[in-house]
Amino acid sequence: MEVQTFNDVFEALSDTPAEAADMRARADLMSVLVEHVTSWGLSREAAAARLGITRPRLNDLLRGKLGKFSPNALVNLAAARPVKRQGRSTTLPRARLPKARSSASRHASRGKVREIGTLKRPSAASRAYRPSAS
């Protein structure tokens, strides 16, 4: 049996150097997030609400379950609140997603305004007089 030596645990667990680098980056960001969340001194329910995630999801974060978080998910959590790293405060820009709009508001933004549901029934007096189209 051959003894193998690795620089860190991520090299031992991964098949490629890129995969090891990805795991290392996620672990670094996760540890910074865990330190930051625990520094709030809030209950897990309140901390989850502050981050905009569920309590079971926060539990996965605090327990270091690396496989349950993509790099994007961790960056989004870091963007939710400022994270201090190496003595400076870093706030990552939050991604701007397009707001869900109804078809009426899309038409209105294009200059095709169409009122829906605001038509009134004609009164009895206006229904009595109808000029012929001939």
CATH fold assignment of the domain at 9-90: 434 Repressor (Amino-terminal Domain)
Average residue-wise pLDDT:
75
- Side by side, the strands of the main sheet go 1-2
Give the SSE order as H and E letters.
Answer: HHHHHEEHH
Give your account of this protein's structure.
This protein is mainly alpha-helical. It is 49% helix and 4% strand. The protein has a two-stranded antiparallel ribbon. Strand 1 and strand 2 form a beta hairpin.
Structure summary:
The protein is 49% helix and 4% strand. With 134 residues, the chain is mainly alpha-helical.
Secondary-structure blueprint:
Layout: H1 9-13, H2 17-39, H3 44-51, H4 55-62, H5 71-80, E1 83-85, E2 88-90, H6 103-109, H7 124-128
Antiparallel strand pairs: 1-2
Helix pairs in contact: 2-5, 3-4
For this entry, give a set of tags.
single chain, mainly alpha, elongated, 434 Repressor (Amino-terminal Domain), two-stranded antiparallel ribbon, 4% strand, 2 strands, 134 residues
